[in-house]
Amino acid sequence: MFALNVYEFPKSGNVYDSRGEAYFNKKEYALSKSDYQKSLELDPTNNNAKEMILKINQIFSAKN
Length: 64
What we know:
mainly alpha; 0% strand; globular
C-alpha cells in the first residue's frame, strides 16, 4: 500500500514519511532512513523526518 502511495504521489513528502515509519517499525532501518531523507528533501520543514534520521543514526552507531 505504501509503495503504491509513493508511486501515485512521488512529490509528496508525507507518503515517504509514512513509508519510512512502516519500514522503521519492521526494523528495516536503511530503507526507513532513505525514505525519511527523501521526505525531508521534498519537505525541509518535516521535523519528524529529521528526528527519525537522528534516531536511526543512533541505532546504526549502537550496532558498531
